[in-house]
Amino acid sequence: MLLPANTKHRKQFKGRIHGHAKGNHELSFGFYGLKSLQPERISSRQIESARRTISRHLKRAGRLWIMIFPDVPVTSKPAEVRMGKGKGNIDRWVVRVKPGTIMFEVDGVDKKLAKEAFALAAAKLPVKTSFIARDHYQ
Fold first, then answer.
1. CB distance 50 to 121 below 8 Å
2. CA distance linking residue 25 with residue 91, whole number of Å
3. Are 46 and 103 contacting, i.e. CB atoms less than 8 angstroms apart?
4. Using CA atoms, how far apart are residues 75 and 87, in angstroms rounded to an integer?
5. Class for domain 39-78+99-136, per CATH?
6. Can you give the pLDDT at residue 134?
7. Which residues are registered as beta bridge partners of 89?
8. 128: which of 37, 56, 102, 119 lies 20 to 30 Å off by Cα?
9. For residues 119-130, average pLDDT
10. For the chain, which residues make up each domain, given as ranges?
11. Residues 12, 3: Cα–Cα separation, whole Å
12. Displacement of CA 8 from its chain's centroid (Å)
């Protein structure tokens, strides 16, 4: 699973996801992409599950880019522990995804196959998504 090698601070506040994507809202490398339509936190497990689904459906043809990286720590306290006594330990790593963020890109496969792979991957993610192609930009 994905997690950062080191961070400046061990634990972070929860924060809120405001507005639309400022960067990473157009295709950079691939010809087809999976774009987020909702603000949400996506965990490293969900990213890995979607990646495996895409690569298996494409039968490792073409090239896949993961455009998001989980760099936000989420803490949780153990079960049946009373309130207080400080913040819990790091439980998982997430990425805050804004609407309009490109999450995955693919190239080297035909449109139908890419659309099917992204539809399967979208079922693994907690956000509504849309399939985009480079021909929309040209």
1. yes
2. 29
3. no
4. 7
5. alpha beta
6. 86
7. 76
8. 56
9. 97
10. 39-78+99-136
11. 15
12. 22
Structure tokens that stand for 38 in this block: 């909702």
SS (H, E, C) the chain: CCCCCCCCCCCCCCCCCCCCCCCCCCCCCCCEEEEECCCEEEEHHHHHHHHHHHHHHCCCCCEEEECCCCCEEEEECCCCCCCCCCCCEEEEEEEEECCCCEEEEEECCCHHHHHHHHHHHHCCCCCCEEEEEHHHCC
58: nearest Cα among 130, 128, 108:
108
Count how many residues are written for the chain: 138
Question: In this predicted model, what pLDDT tens digit does every residue of 33-84 receive, in sequence order?
Answer: 999 999 999 999 999 999 999 999 999 899 999 999 999 999 999 999 999 9
